[in-house]
Amino acid sequence: MAPADPEISLPPPVAARLPDIRNQTPADLAQRFQAWGQPHYRIDQLLNWLYSRRAASWEEMKNLPKDLRAQLAGDFSLGSLQLLRKQGSHDTTQKFLWRLHDGALIESVLIPANPALYGERSDRHTLCVSTQVGCAYGCKFCASGLEGWKRNLEPWEIIGQVLAVERWHAETPVAPPEDPGLTPPASPAATPAGAAGREPTRLINNLVIMGMGEPMANYVHLMAALRTLNAPWGGQIGARKITISTSGVVPRIRDLADDPLQFRLAISLHGATDPVRTQIMPINRKYPLAELTAACEHYVAQKGQMITLEYILIAGINDALDQIPHLARLARRLHAKVNVIPYNQVEGLPWERPSETVCEQFAEELRECGITTTLRMEKGHDIDAACGQLRLKTEKELAATAS
Ligand code: SAH
Ligand code: SF4
Questions:
Q1: From residue 333, how far is each of 23, 131, 134, 153, 301 by CA, in Å?
Q2: Bridge partner list, 133
Q3: How far is the CA of 286 from the centre of ligand 2 (A)?
């Protein structure tokens, strides 16, 4: 064999991983446990450790016999996401940057429903999760697609974002309020997830699939993850509390319509006529508005659920009022509500958000057409909340330190 070229330094190979335990359905586990001669109630105990106690190691699972733990460890991984960076403070929008086992970076964003007062914790939280590393769809305004697509997330890596944030929350004490005069009575110390005794409470009751990646391009893994996150033995998040956002992958919208679970659908529209939409979203060439609308109509007919049209406003690109009648017609036909979102500027891209007046006028004109409209000033504007931005920034910093 020729000697290795000393000039070329290859990264160390990523060790082959066993399949992750959270990629397994209860039916898969039942088969395995039966083959091992383990009683069925052990599966319930395992599921409880995985999804209620959010165990990060086999050793924590104290009520499982040692030999079963060894069998599990011999056949499955129990992966975890490594928190690389976090932006934002408790009870505001917080962004988490995770490193995966192969070094890939992904983001999740935690959004409290009501910013809590006086140092108490807000009790309702939405988590925005990623489904891919990068994105192949190349929407012109989006940071996630800037460096292309790297890979699909596995189901456990999607589920793991919820578990890791909940675990992090349970282990992190509440920061004291700035004004000591407003200090509430001391709250009991947070119980680390997995500690013996009481069941940890759930933090996340709303999920939006709006992080990095196109969820419908990782449909099989996404649905596997969502079934687990929805299940009473899993994440216990109601299907109607889970919204999948797509740039418009028509065949998968139809698949979702025909799925028995009632997941919600949001469409990243961003243009109400084909020329405007094609200009910023290449997918519109493959699935133009007529096809997208027909697929959405099928979804609405199947589910009897309202869908949401997301419309980010980009100055000079899609913010002209001549879009309004087209957008109103589409929304009316689909019985959809419209979320108008001022564009979040991305470093390195030329696009800008219009003035507040333009955003308000756009939303107001839509309302005047009888369309239910919200103008959502991005909550995380100050912490690069639009998907893909923190990852991009960190990758640039890592590259700079490595060179
Ligand atoms: N790929 C899916 C889901 C992830 S993107 C989709 O496109 O729907 C989630 C949402 O963030 C989409 O509506 C997307 O258009 C929007 N988005 C992307 N970059 C943005 C930015 N810089 N400012 C505001 N919204 C942005
Ligand atoms: Fe991908 Fe969605 Fe970003 Fe488009 S908007 S590049 S589909 S993540």
A1: 39, 30, 33, 34, 12
A2: 151
A3: 15
* Distance in Å, CA 268 to ligand 2 centroid: 9
Q: Which ligand is nearest to the CA of 344?
A: 1
Segment 46-72 mean pLDDT = 97
Ligand 2 site residues, Cβ closer than 6 angstroms: 135, 137-139, 142, 144-145, 213-214, 247, 268, 387
Task: Tell me what pLDDT residue 162 has.
Answer: 98
Ligand 2, closest atom to CA 143? 3
Query: Rounded distance, CA 57 to CA 94, Å?
Result: 26
How confident is the model over 106-164, as pLDDT tens digits? 999 998 876 544 445 567 899 999 999 999 999 999 998 888 999 999 999 999 999 99
Write the single-letter amino acid at 359. Answer: C
What residues are paired with 132 via a beta bridge?
Answer: 152
Tokens 């405007």 belong to: 276
Q: Which CATH architecture group holds 82-174+190-402? A: Alpha-Beta Barrel (3.20)
Catalytic residue list: 107, 387
CA of 267 to the centre of ligand 1 (A): 10
What six digits make up the tokens of 168? 């992090």
> Where exactly are the structural domains of the chain?
26-75, 82-174+190-402
Query: Which residues, in sequence order, are CB contacts of 320 under 8 Å at separation 6+?
Result: none
Pick the closest to residue 187 from 202, 164, 170 (CA basis).
Answer: 170
Residues 6+ apart with CB under 8 A from 307: 264, 265, 266, 267, 296, 299, 300, 334, 335, 336
- SS3 state of residue 342: strand
Residue 148, SS3?
Answer: coil
From the CA of 282, the nearest ligand is 2
The residues, any chain, with a CB within 8 Å of residue 58's CB and separated by 6 or more, are: 69, 72, 73, 78
CA 238 – ligand 2 centroid, Å: 25
Specify the residue with its C-alpha closest to ligand 2, atom 4. 139
pLDDT > 90 in the chain, percent: 73
Assigned CATH for 26-75: 1.10.150.530
**pLDDT at residue 268 in the model:** 97
Q: Is 14 exposed, middle or buried (0-12, 13-18, 19+ CB in 10 A)?
A: exposed
